[in-house]
Design brief:
single chain, Rossmann fold, six-stranded mixed sheet, alpha/beta
């Protein structure tokens, strides 16, 4: 008698594919949150394996802050086109114009302003489920998530009011206006993601690899120098995020470990220019990847507060 044993990555992949198919079966209007980052890249490969040779039965949704790395936007658009998927993009700037969001005086980061944009997109397209690439190992608030993360009619998350998932059974019932966020990579780690990228030979944005970039030191982190402001008819979107005279610019060999926008993403000095190099770096790391995100350093409960308000 022969037996078949799944290795660690195969088990995680099988679990995630099962969850993707559960979403397709249980919800009427699901969407995939696709930013172009490494986690959502894995989500797309899982979607291919879950649904091919049919088309992926859900559109991609991305919320732009207006401060994104140009390399990330190019990769996002190209990957969606390769898969023949519908890509829906909603921006913080559009939300300002429509009165859906209001900039806070003195606030540089727009991450919190993504909340009303995301909730507005969910209402606009009547999405009842959004699939995201969050993992429980990222930080404390993420660790409280279930695979199926229930959101009330206001799009808010209550970690004390989530549904049990005994024997991998998921309760997808929703009342009018409620929605679900689903995280197929919940049991994955950063190492699992990179090993999966290596095994599947997945392309990732080039900013994940070592490159030379001008950076400056702020808040204990190296932040990228934003691109020059060329349209003088409009306010500089990076005003306040540019280095001051007391923050000298350094040209350094670096890469990103996790991607937010240019205002929040801390660069790490690194010579890693292959996926194998990155895997070795992750194995030796003693700081979590979210430890390089300036927006998560604002307070101990920064992420949980944003998630309770409707964040990804």
């Amino acid at each position: 008698m022969s037996s078949y044993h799944l290795d660690h990555l195969q088990y995680l992949e099988t679990e995630a594919i099962h969850i993707m198919r559960e979403v397709a079966a249980e919800f009427e209007r699901p969407a995939i949150l696709f930013s172009g980052g490494k986690d959502s890249i894995c989500i797309l490969r899982l979607a291919e394996k879950a649904f091919r040779p049919a088309e992926i039965p859900m559109p991609f949704l991305n919320v732009e802050t207006g401060h994104e790395f140009p390399e990330l936007i190019e990769f996002r658009d190209r990957r969606a086109k390769q898969l023949g998927a519908k890509l829906i993009v909603r921006t913080v700037d559009e939300a300002f114009a429509k009165g859906l969001a209001t900039p806070t005086p003195g606030q540089i980061s727009r991450n919190q302003l993504q909340i009303p944009v995301l909730l507005g997109a969910i209402e606009e397209f009547r999405f009842d489920c959004c699939i995201g690439g969050a993992r429980r190992d990222e930080e404390k608030a993420r660790a409280k998530e279930r695979f199926f993360s229930f959101r009330d009619a206001f799009g808010q998350w209550d970690p004390k009011n989530q549904r049990p998932e005994i024997w991998n059974l998921y309760n997808a019932r929703l009342n009018q206006g409620e929605n679900m966020r689903v995280f197929p990579l919940s049991n994955w780690t950063e190492m699992d993601v990179w090993e999966y990228i290596q095994r599947e030979k997945l392309e990732v944005p080039n900013i994940y690899f070592s490159h030379t970039r001008e950076c400056f030191r702020r808040g204990g982190q190296w932040l990228p120098v934003p691109p020059p402001h060329t349209d003088t008819t409009k306010p500089d979107p990076y005003a306040g995020a540019r280095p001051s005279a007391k923050e000298p610019i350094k040209s350094m060999v670096c890469r990103v470990r996790t991607i937010a926008d240019m205002i929040s993403t801390g660069m790490i000095e690194s010579p890693a220019d292959t996926v194998s190099d990155i895997i070795r770096e992750v194995a030796a790391a003693r700081v979590t990847e979210r430890g390089t995100r300036a927006d998560d350093k604002a307070s101990e409960a920064a992420m949980e507060d944003r998630k309770k308000a409707g964040y990804f």
